[in-house]
Specification:
By secondary structure, the chain is of the alpha+beta class. Helix content is 74%, strand content 7%.
Length: 620
C-alpha cells in the first residue's frame, strides 16, 4: 500500500519537479553527510584535546610537586653546615618553610585533580596516584614537625660554642639519615614514574588528535562519494521514468505516420507533461514536435546540472584539502609551542638553581678569600716574632723547649705559609667556578648582548668537567680548543650557552657509548677526543664546530635528529628535546644554521653558524 501510494505521488509530479526532487535529495545527502562528518570529527577532536589538556595538567602538577620536594630536601641539608651561622641558618629555614607551604598547596591541588578525573579510562593510573597520595599523605607533615622540633632544640643551644654547634650539626645529620627523611625522599622517586606515564599519556593524546583529523577527513570524503553515486542513480532513474513514456508515444506516432492510422490512441498512464502530450497527440501533430523540443531542453538542463554538481564537488574537495593543510600547520605549531614551554621551564629552573648556588657559594668564598690576606700577614708577623725570640733567647726554659718539640715548631714555621697559599689557591678556584656558573646562566640578560663566545664555551666545559675527567673505567676525555680570532658576537648568551651544553653533553654520551665495548687500555691507546673549532666565515658570519670521535650516526637517525621528542637513548636517559631546543635557539632565536655531519664508526660534527650582528637592530 505504501509503495503504491508513493508511486502515485511520484507519477503525479511534473518532469521538472521529478528532476528537482532528485537533485534535492542528492545535495541534501551530500550536505548531511558532510555535516555529520565534521560533527563526528569535531567531537572526537574535542575529546582528544581534553585528554591532551588533562595529561599536560598532570605533568605540570607532578613536576611542581617533585621540584618543591627536592628544594625542601636541599634546604634541609643546607641547615647542617649553616648551624654555626645563626642568621643564615634562620634564612635557610625560612626558605624551607616557604617550600613546605607550597608542597601542601600542590598536594591539595593534586588530590582535587585526581578526584575530578577519577572516572576517566586511565583510572588504573589515577588509582596508583591516589594510593601514592594516601601512602605519603602524612609524610610531609611528619617530616616538617620532626624538623621543627629539631630546629627548636638547636635554637635552645648556644651556637657560639663549638661543642653546641657540633651537637646541632649532629642533630640535623641524624635527621637527614633518618627513616622519615628516606621515606620523604621516596616521594620524589615515585613521582619520576608518574611523570613518565603522564608524558606517555600526552604522546598518546597527540596521536589520537591526528587520528581524529584523519577520521573526519575520511567521513567527509566518503559522504561526498556516496552523494555522487546516489545522484547518478537518481539521474538514471529519472531519465528512465521520462524516456519510457516518450518511447511509447514515439512508437504510436511512427505507426500513425507510417500506417496513416489516426485512430490509434496513445496510452495515458501519467498526469505529467507526457500524459498531456498523449492527450493532445490525436488533435495536433505539432504537439509532438513541441514535446520533442521540450525533451531536448530538459536534457540540456540535466547536463548543466551535472556540470554544476561536478564543479561544486571540485570546490568542496579543494576546501577540504586547504583545511587539512591548515590542521597540519596547527599541529606543527602545537609541537613547537610544546618545545618552547619545556625550554622556558627548563631554562627558568636551571637559571634559578645556578644563580642560587652561585650566590650561596660566592659570599662565604669572598669572605674567606678576603680574610686570607690578613691571615697571611698575621701568620708572617707571628712567625717573625717567634724567630726573634729564638735569635735573642736561644736557650729557652725547659718547658718551652719541650712544648716546641711536641708541636714540631720547625715544621709549623715551614708548612704554615704553604697551607695558607694552598687555601688561597682553593678560594681562587671556587671564585672561578662561581664566575663560570654566572656566565653560563646569565639570568639577567634577556636581550641581545655582545659577548665573547669563547668565554661561554669555556664556562660550559667547566660545568661539564665532572663528566670529562678520568674515571676508573676510562681515562679523561681530551678537549682540543682551536679558537679563531672572533669579535664579540650579538646573541642571547644564556640560550647560546644552553645550545653548547646540549651539543657537548651529547658528544660525551656518544663517547661513553663507544667506550662500553672497549677496555681501559684500548681507550688509552685511542683516547676520546672532543674538538672545538671557531672561525670567521666572512665579515658577517662566524662558525663554531664541535666534533667527537664516537660511534657516529646512521643517515636515518640524522634525518630525525632535530625532531622534538626523538631520541636513541634508553628510557630515563634522554627526553629527545636537547637538540630540538638547540636547533630552535640557533635558527629561530638567532637566525643562524645548525648542521650535523656524521660518519658511522668515525664520529660526529655539529656546525653552528650565527651572525656577528643580529639583523633585528637593522630593522629597529
Amino acid at each position: 500500500m505504501v509503495r503504491q501510494s508513493l508511486g502515485q505521488r511520484l507519477s503525479s509530479l511534473r518532469v521538472g519537479q521529478k528532476i528537482g526532487l532528485g537533485y534535492t535529495l542528492a545535495l541534501g545527502i551530500a550536505v548531511c553527510g558532510t555535516i555529520a562528518g565534521f560533527g563526528v570529527g569535531d567531537h572526537y577532536q574535542q575529546e582528544t584535546q581534553e585528554h591532551e589538556q588533562h595529561a599536560r595538567n598532570e605533568v605540570e602538577l607532578l613536576q611542581r610537586l617533585q621540584s618543591r620536594v627536592l628544594q625542601a630536601r636541599t634546604h634541609q641539608q643546607q641547615l647542617i653546615p649553616l648551624a654555626q651561622y645563626p642568621e643564615k641558618f634562620q634564612d635557610e629555614y625560612a626558605h624551607l618553610l616557604k617550600h613546605k607551604a607550597e608542597i601542601q598547596k600542590i598536594w591539595a591541588e593534586l588530590k582535587a585533580f585526581v578526584a575530578k578525573y577519577h572516572s576517566r579510562q586511565d583510572n588504573v593510573h589515577h588509582a596508583t596516584i591516589l594510593a601514592f597520595l594516601q601512602t605519603y599523605d602524612r609524610v610531609p607533615q611528619l617530616y616538617s614537625q620532626e624538623l621543627e622540633r629539631r630546629v627548636e632544640r638547636i635554637r635552645s643551644l648556644d651556637l657560639a660554642s663549638p661543642t653546641d654547634v657540633e651537637q646541632a650539626q649532629a642533630l640535623m645529620l641524624e635527621f637527614t639519615n633518618s627513616d622519615l627523611a628516606l621515606e620523604y625522599d621516596g616521594i620524589s622517586d615515585d613521582l619520576v614514574g608518574f611523570i613518565d606515564h603522564a608524558y606517555q599519556e600526552l604522546e598518546v593524546a597527540t596521536r589520537s588528535y591526528q587520528q581524529a583529523s584523519e577520521v573526519a577527513e575520511k567521513l567527509v570524503v566518503a559522504s561526498i562519494g556516496l552523494s555522487v553515486a546516489i545522484a547518478i542513480l537518481l539521474a538514471i532513474l529519472t531519465s528512465r521514468a521520462i524516456a519510457q513514456p516518450i518511447q511509447a508515444l514515439t512508437s504510436v506516432a511512427r505507426r500513425t505516420t507510417e500506417e496513416s492510422n489516426f485512430e490509434l490512441q496513445a496510452t495515458v498512464e501519467q498526469d505529467d507533461e507526457i500524459g498531456m502530450l498523449a492527450n493532445a497527440f490525436n488533435q495536433l501533430i505539432r504537439a509532438v514536435q513541441q514535446l520533442l523540443q521540450q525533451q531536448k531542453t530538459a536534457n540540456e538542463q540535466l547536463e548543466n546540472y551535472s556540470q554544476t554538481l561536478e564543479s561544486e564537488v571540485e570546490v568542496r574537495t579543494q576546501e577540504l584539502s586547504d583545511k587539512n593543510t591548515q590542521l597540519q600547520q596547527l599541529l606543527e605549531e602545537l609541537q613547537r609551542t610544546q618545545v618552547q614551554m619545556v625550554q622556558s621551564e627548563k631554562m627558568s629552573a636551571l637559571g634559578q638553581m645556578v644563580a642560587g648556588v652561585a650566590h650561596e657559594i660566592n659570599n662565604p668564598a669572598n669572605f674567606i678569600h678576603g680574610n686570607l690576606t690578613h691571615v697571611q700577614e698575621y701568620a708572617h708577623n707571628l712567625l717573625g716574632l717567634v724567630q726573634l725570640y729564638q735569635n735573642y733567647y736561644p736557650d729557652p726554659a725547659p718547658e718551652i723547649q719541650a712544648e716546641a718539640e711536641d708541636i714540631d715548631m720547625e715544621f709549623i714555621q715551614a708548612d704554615l705559609p704553604k697551607v695558607l697559599d694552598s687555601m688561597k689557591l682553593g678560594t681562587d678556584r671556587i671564585r672561578q667556578i662561581v664566575l663560570s656558573l654566572r656566565n653560563f646562566s646569565r639570568m639577567d640578560e634577556a636581550d641581545f648582548k655582545a659577548v665573547d663566545i669563547h668565554e661561554g664555551i669555556d664556562s660550559t666545559l667547566l660545568i661539564l668537567q665532572h663528566r670529562l675527567k678520568d674515571k676508573p673505567e676510562r681515562p679523561a676525555i681530551q678537549v682540543i680548543r682551536d679558537y679563531g680570532n672572533l669579535p664579540l658576537i650579538e646573541c642571547y648568551p644564556g640560550q647560546i650557552n644552553q645550545a653548547f651544553m646540549n651539543i657537548l653533553a651529547n658528544a660525551i654520551d656518544a663517547l661513553e657509548e663507544a667506550n662500553v665495548k672497549r677496555t681501559y687500555q684500548e681507550i688509552k691507546e685511542n683516547p676520546n677526543l672532543i674538538t672545538i673549532r671557531t672561525a670567521m666565515i666572512d665579515s658577517k658570519w662566524v662558525k663554531i664546530a664541535i666534533s667527537d670521535n664516537g660511534t657516529g650516526m646512521s643517515e636515518s637517525v640524522q634525518k630525525r635528529l632535530f625532531d622534538p621528542f626523538f631520541t636513541t637513548k634508553s628510557v630515563g636517559k634522554g627526553t629527545g628535546l636537547g637538540l630540538a631546543i638547540s636547533y630552535q635557539i640557533v635558527t629561530e632565536k638567532h637566525g643562524g644554521k645548525l648542521d650535523c655531519c656524521s660518519i658511522p664508526g668515525e664520529g660526529t660534527e655539529f656546525v653552528i653558524q650565527i651572525l656577528v650582528q643580529q639583523q633585528i637592530r637593522d630593522a629597529v
